[in-house]
Amino acid sequence: MQLTHYNTNFTKHKFPIIVVSDNVTNAPNIGSLFRVCDAFGVDKLILCGNSIPMGRKMTKTSRATEKSVNFEKYESALKVIQNLKSKNYQIIALEITETSTPIHTFKFSKENPIAIVVGDENFGVSEAILKLSNTSIHINMYGKNSSMNVVQATNIALYEITKQML
């Protein structure tokens, strides 16, 4: 028998993880980020950018998780990252770079809380934030395309991080 939201026996757990979106502005992506953060017990979602859509398209995708996920909105992702870094967060950019590490080989530390930075749908994580990050991780891909949807990548990253933290 298939289980529903009401009869699963998953243990609720909050992880010391903040997801910072660096100018993610597509309403369905924002809604999906709420759902992912809820599913993986993320401590907080921080939405950064000039125009973060919080309307009907976002809430249709979020399935009301914007009501249960702790979130904040700011214009500058760079200022958010500088602040989190000053509070001893591990700043981890989810981005393919010349020096990024494949996520499946990276060992996430439980010593300090994690801020995982996900980037703009077209341009990724900004260069300024990449420079401030403690490290960059990427998801190996085996097809012709060299990128995937920001929410799908966030799903994979949060799965790996929380799996290591349990």
Structure, briefly:
The protein has 166 residues and is α/β, with parallel strands linked by helices. It is built from five helices and seven strands.
Give your account of this protein's structure.
With 166 residues, this protein is α/β, with parallel strands linked by helices. The protein has one domain (15-165): Alpha/beta knot (3-Layer(aba) Sandwich), CATH 3.40.1280.10. Helices cover 31% and strands 22% of the residues. It contains 5 helices and 7 strands. Helix 1 links the parallel strand 1 and strand 2 (42-48). Helix 1 (27-39) packs parallel to helix 2 and helix 1 (27-39) packs parallel to helix 5. The two termini are 27 Å apart.
What features would you highlight for this structure?
166 residues, 22% strand, seven-stranded parallel β-sheet, Alpha/beta knot, alpha/beta, 5 helices, single chain
Record the SSE blueprint.
Blueprint lengths: L14 E8 L4 H13 L2 E7 L7 H7 L8 E4 L2 H10 L3 E5 L6 E2 L11 E6 L7 H6 L2 E4 L11 H16 L1
Parallel strand pairs: 1-2, 1-6, 2-3, 4-6, 4-7, 5-7
Helix pairs in contact: 1-2, 1-5
